[in-house]
Amino acid sequence: MKTIAVVSTTGGAGRTTVAATLAVLLARRGRDVVAIDFDWQNMLGAWLGLDALAPRGIGEALCCTSDASSAWHEHTWRNDDGVLFVPHGQLTLDEAAACDARLAAHPQWLRHAIAQIALPASGVAVIDTPRYPSRQAQQAACAADLVLCVCPPDPAACATFVAHLPALLDACRDVRIVVNRLNPAREMQRDVLAMLRAAAGGLPVAQRIHMEAALPEAFARGAWLMDEAPHTQASHDLHGLAHHVDAWLPALEPSIAA
Ligand SMILES: Nc1ncnc2c1ncn2[C@@H]1O[C@H](COP(=O)(O)OP(=O)(O)OP(=O)(O)O)[C@@H](O)[C@H]1O
Ligand SMILES: [Mg+2]
């Protein structure tokens, strides 16, 4: 099983969008997929089909040290596309502070939690994270075989990405960029993209995803852009990202013919 952390150095970059969509598109390609919400905003479930924010999940196991509460597996569920979903759960401010302290004391906590998931070699865990740097995002990057860094083509995202890239590469050697909300008509974006390319050196760009107003609208209706507007550029881009990751993953085991 491989682990992918979806991170970004600015808020609202599209991490949750990318994590949820990637999980679903990989599941539709026949992969065993676990999607883990490691962001205490607890929003990934909304993308994966929950009507309300999940009350319990991996966050509870993190903030409580008793063994009984480490059974976060009990709060997992499977969405319509077959993605096994691990919610974060709702936390109070005090509980969130306790989580931070636990992560500081146990830098491998998430890696050990992921090791409890039994998936075939061709399976994949996709982790949504809070903005980097944060303890959650750092643990996700350290536990990951691949970090997808979502970066909108704007100056703040570019500057913070450059500032944190050495630490990210320290955590995981395979960091790839996902440029999100691309609007080639905007000249400023072209300049920022050139800056990003220069700053990233030889880092691969896994995919460019275009700005698409129908994407948040589809989400609001509980639907996927790829289903509602399959011919939009952003829909093609999201499939392109899934293809990129699918090609990076170990080949699927051939299914046994009946
Ligand atoms: N390519 C895109 N085109 C248009 N809207 C997009 C695109 N990608 C993401 N969005 C929208 O941008 C908003 C922020 O996306 P998302 O919640 O995925 O970002 P995030 O990085 O997870 O944010 P947060 O820091 O709050 O966790 C959402 O409304 C989402 O629908
Ligand atoms: Mg998010």
The CATH topology is given as Rossmann fold
What is the averaged pLDDT score?
92
Based on the coordinates given, report the CATH architecture.
Answer: 3-Layer(aba) Sandwich
CATH homologous superfamily label: P-loop containing nucleotide triphosphate hydrolases
Strand order of the largest sheet: 3-4-2-5-1-6-7-8
The fraction of residues assigned to DSSP E strands is 15-25%
Instruction: Give the class from helix and strand content and strand pairing.
Output: alpha/beta
The percentage helix is: 40-55%
Cα shape:
globular
- Listing every helix as H and every strand as E from the N terminus to the C terminus, the arrangement reads EHEHHEEHHEHEHEHEHHH
Task: Catalogue the unreliable spans.
Answer: none
Count of extended strands: 8
Query: How far is the first residue's CA from the last residue's CA?
Result: 26 Å
| Count of domain modules | 1
Name of the CATH class = Alpha Beta
* Number of helical segments with 4 or more residues: 11
Gyration radius from CA atoms, angstroms: 18 Å
